[in-house]
Structure formats: C-alpha cells, structure tokens
Amino acid sequence: MTIQAQKIVALNKHSLHAANPCAACMKKSGCPVSGFTDNASASASFISARTFRTGELVFKAGDKFEGIYVVRSGFFKSSFIDASGEMQVTGFHFPGDVFGIDGIGGGQYGDSVAALDTGSVCKIPFSVFTDSRSGNDPRAQERMLSLVRMMSSTISRDRNMIFNLGKMDARRRFAVFLLDIADRMGNSGYNSGDFSLCMSRTDISNYLCLAIETVSRLFSQFHGQGIIHVERRQVSILDRDMLEALARDNLANDDRMMSKAG
Amino acid sequence: MTIQAQKIVALNKHSLHAANPCAACMKKSGCPVSGFTDNASASASFISARTFRTGELVFKAGDKFEGIYVVRSGFFKSSFIDASGEMQVTGFHFPGDVFGIDGIGGGQYGDSVAALDTGSVCKIPFSVFTDSRSGNDPRAQERMLSLVRMMSSTISRDRNMIFNLGKMDARRRFAVFLLDIADRMGNSGYNSGDFSLCMSRTDISNYLCLAIETVSRLFSQFHGQGIIHVERRQVSILDRDMLEALARDNLANDDRMMSKAG
DNA sequence: CGCTGAATTGAGGGAGGTCAAGTTCTGTGG
DNA sequence: CCACAGAACTTGACCTCCCTCAATTCAGCG
Fold it and tell me: A10 falls in which pLDDT band (50, 70, 90)?
C-alpha cells in the first residue's frame, strides 16, 4: 500500500501541478479536504502534490504562508527554534493529517516541517479560501467553514497538550503518547498494535518535554512490565488496557488503582 | 473609566438586545470585532451586552456553542474540569480580549468562563459568520477572515503556553506570567507597572501548573530581590529589565547572565 | 471575639534532570 | 570480511527543583 502510494507520487513528482492528484489518490475517502475535490474533475486542479526525502523541509518557520498541507504518505515533524536557540518539536503528522494551519493569521508559518522518512504531501493554496472570485461560489463558504473546523481541532489538540505537559507526570505523558501514536497509526492504515516508530528517541523526548534518558527508561520500564514489546523503533502494544489505565492517572494516584484492581 | 463603562452596561443590563451597544461603547477603537460594527448603525444590532457578578458563569463547558464573546470591562477566567475531576485554569481574559472561540468545531464550548469581579461582555452570535443570507454580503467573508485570524492568534498563544509549561522552570514561568499580565493591564487602560491582580494565588498556580506554595514563594522571592513590590494582590513592577531577563532564561542558565552582569 | 478562607513560610522527600559510561546499530573505508 | 567512527540508545549514580505536608499569619465577616 505504501509502495503503491509512492509509485503514484513518483508520477506527479516532476509536475508540481498535476491534472488532479486527488483522482489517483487512494486516501480520497479519508482526506480531510476531500470536500474541496468532490464532483468536477477539474475542481482539484489547484491542489499540487510533492514528495520529500528524509530530513527535507516542506517549509521553514518564517516562510511566507502560501497554503495548508495534507500528508499523503510518510511521516512529518513540526518544530521551531525558540529565542534561546533550542529546538522544540511541536507535533508529528501522519497520513491524512493537515499541517501549516498555524500562521494563517500572521501570514507566515510558525514552525518548520520536515519529512521523517520519504513521504508526500498535498498543498492547498490559501487563495482557495480567500479568492474573491470564489466569493460567489457557494462552496467557498463551505471551504472556509472546514478551515475553521480544522483550526478548531488544532486548538483542542493544543489544549490537550497543555494539559499533558502541565498536569501529567512523565509516565502518564508517555502512556498518552504511545496510545496517540498507536491510534493514529491505525487511522493511517497501519497496524495500531504493532508498528514502527517513525521518529527518534530525541524527537519523542523533545516533543514530550522530557529528558531523552527518561524516555528511554520508560520504554524499558513498560517493556519489563509486559505492557509493550520494544526493540529499537519497533513497538508492539501487549496490554492496551494497562496502557489506558496508566494514561488516566499520575503515579501518585496509583494506590487507588491498585486497591481497586487487587 | 471603569465606572463609566459599568454605567453604560447598567443601561443595557435588562435589555439583552440593545439597539447598538457598540455606539455607546468607549472601547470601540480597540475592539477586535469593530470591523463588524462599522458604518451602518444597525449593523451591530445582533451584538448583545451583559454584566456578570463575581463568580458568575458566562457559559459552562459543554454548553451549546452560540457565539463568541468580547470583554467590555472586568476580568474573566477560563477553566475546565478534567476527567479526574480536577480543575484546570486555561486563561484569563482582559477588557478587549475575545473568548469562546474554541469549540466552534465541536459545536459546544470547551471550557467554562467565569467573572473574576463584576464585568461585562459583548456576545457575537455565530450566525453572523454562517448565516447563508450574509453569504452574498461582501463583509461576511471579511468577518469570516477575522474569525480565522482570531483563531490563529489563539493557536499561537496556546503554542507559547506549551513552550512555557514544557521548557521553562517555575521562576521563568512566573516572570513570563507577570510580564504578560502587566502588558495586558497596560493594553486594557490600566497602569502596566502598578496594578491589582484580578485572580487569586490558587488561580495563578493552577494556570501556571505549579503548587500554590511555589507561586507564593516566587512572589516573596521577587519582592525580596527588589524586582517587584507585592502586598496581597497589589503588585508594582520595580525592575522590568530584571523581570525580562528572568523571563529569557531558566535558572540553570543564570551563570551566563551573572558573569555578563557582574 | 472566633471562624473561615487566602496566603506565607518551613521541613522533608521524590520525580525527573544531569553527568557519565557502556552497548548496539549503521555506514565507511581498508 | 573486519576495523573503526559516530550516532542512537540504554543504564546507572547523583543531585536539585519543586511538590507535599504542616504550622502560622492575616484579612474579612458574622
């Protein structure tokens, strides 16, 4: 499936403006912007697809905002450099995910997005939403609304992250992370119980705002407790219930759990 | 100024749908939604104003989303109850601030908003943005765009918060908080160097994800170092430069600072 | 006056960061 | 094929920032 997707992308690789990348896209039904591409074959002519190699940047923080992106295949990483020069990973993007929505207001991207492996993205130019000619198009408003919905879900995801960082200890944060990755793997067509992590320990620790040693220790701990099986980047989830229990409570509240279970 | 604002509000208090609350509003020029109220006097007829007493709720998390709000006067607090039943303060709203934007996507508010003292808000119904009749109105698109811009700034504010919680230690987080409050006090027409905190220590500690004792100790510490003067909720900023320096670096990186200063 | 809630201050402990050393995997060149 | 370098990851020892627990003070109020 991934191989096939890459083949299709390869066709479009050198022609940035494919006739209609969506027509050949196998993710059509699950695509968050499929509403833009319904009906007429020409309706998606403004969408362009491109592949990126490992480490390659889709855009940098500060680049002029040109449009939003949807992941077709592969995995991507958002990050930015703070004032002190330190990197901060702000998110990972799986097939079907949208990125580049932040910075619509400021007119420039707030963070940089890089490919974690070979992958491809669709670009939807912002003009689709703002073009005055489409003001008469009844679908223009629909598009705008879907944009608002996407931004709204970005906000709730960020709120979750704030809660994670603020109120959860390392173990719980890690459990939530594993479940999130597993679910999104599942949504992207992979096996949600047995997958290969697309990012390094360094990326994970940076994203979770933990020391890399702490993340490593948590992998080992969960492995030792039989919750997961981990070997380098290959992860199997052995006890999802336990993982969900860990994601529910901080370490200090475990006594309750124990007494309930024992 | 505040007194006068409250007078005006008192007039509108019992008539939820005032003829045009914006006409009498002195914050007009600084209002983020003033674009909606330009020109025709009737254009703002959909906007309604209301006052709230200390502790009163503007809306609860889970309430049906009906529109966004702008603070006319007073101070408000956003919070929600997490799965474990614990409260989490998500933000403070000053005069001119917009709140209630989150939850547009889900159709219901994501958090509860309560008045920290007596204050008033304007409500802008969501229909303003979605009403199909306004689809032909060239200003409808403008309104939608301003909504997108507001959501975008919410996202960048949240990103900042994530960075604060994830990468900053308690002292730095507190310094950033004080500067933020001071600036927003200034923007709201108060003295940015000498103001009365509108929220309790409990609210601050919850918002910053610190123990209340830690916040109290930081107040005392900054006071002892001559950076601020604090007496109960009255705060004066005595050394803004030092505060900005503290907001730039974590405790561990202070050695550099010291050697530079000493 | 005592009561209550908000805030301060002190003492002690633990989660997680830092430092350091060791191990495994990958790529490169002999 | 092996040797080597370097990155990625693991594991251990130690330390510190901040949380928890507890006692005290202070303002507001009946």
Answer: very low
Please state the pTM of the whole predicted model: 0.85
Q: Which whole number is the average pLDDT over B195-210?
A: 96
**Which residues surround strand C, with CB < 7 Å?**
A 169-171, 209-211, 213-214, 232, 251-252; B 200-202, 212-213, 215-217, 219-220, 230, 232-233, 252
φ and ψ at A14, to 5 degrees?
-95, -10
Give the CA diameter of chain B: 66
CB B257 within 8 A of CB B186: no
Report the distance from CA of residue A69 to the C1' of nucleotide D3 in Å, as an integer.
46
3-class secondary structure, A108: strand
3-state helix, strand, coil in chain A (%, to 5): 45, 20, 35
Strands B112-115 and A76-81: unpaired
For the ranges A22-26, A147-151, B37-41, B234-238, the maximum mean pLDDT occurs at B234-238
CA of A7 to C1' of D21 (A): 63
**Burial (CB count <10 Å: 0-12, 13-18, 19+), residue A14:** exposed
| pLDDT band at residue A250 under the 50/70/90 scheme | confident
Burial class (CB in 10 A: 0-12, 13-18, 19+), A104: buried
